[in-house]
Write a structure and sequence with these properties.
By secondary structure, this protein is α+β, with helices and mostly antiparallel strands. It is elongated, with a radius of gyration of 22 Å.
């Protein structure tokens, strides 16, 4: 990290501009980070975007609320039931849906292909094409 603990913020901004780094504060209402098993929801976060050499970097500062993946989403009840039924055989329902969509087959064929390919999405899709 930088040791600029006592540096004047205006001087720091001037130095960053000289290096071609543009910093912008974003007025974000909510930030959601989705991981495999949970969602981290920042309701009142401070978000900063840095543009440097064609790359954008985002910094999120705040206290997240952790919730189970999909808990905040609204949709039809039958879709949630299908996901629960799909998890019994160890194949995630999202993977089945993705393979079915990409290969243009029904969910049963997609599930069988995923089981045969040991969960490898690309192998299951190529098997069906």
């Amino acid at each position: 990290m930088f040791g600029g603990g006592g540096m004047n913020p205006r001087k720091m901004k001037q130095m960053m501009e000289q290096m071609g780094i543009d910093v912008t504060e974003l007025d974000a209402e909510e930030v959601v980070i989705k991981t495999a098993g949970e969602e981290l929801v920042f309701s009142d976060a401070q978000v900063t975007r840095m543009d440097a050499q064609g790359q954008q970097t985002y910094q999120v500062v705040g206290e997240p609320e952790s919730r189970e993946r999909g808990a905040g989403e609204s949709g039809s009840g039958s879709e949630g039931d299908a996901e629960e039924a799909g998890s019994d055989d160890g194949v995630p329902a999202d993977d089945v849906e993705l393979v079915a969509e990409r290969a243009g087959v029904d969910s049963d064929a997609a599930r069988e292909a995923l089981e045969a390919a040991d969960g490898d999405l690309a192998a299951a899709i190529s098997r069906l094409e």
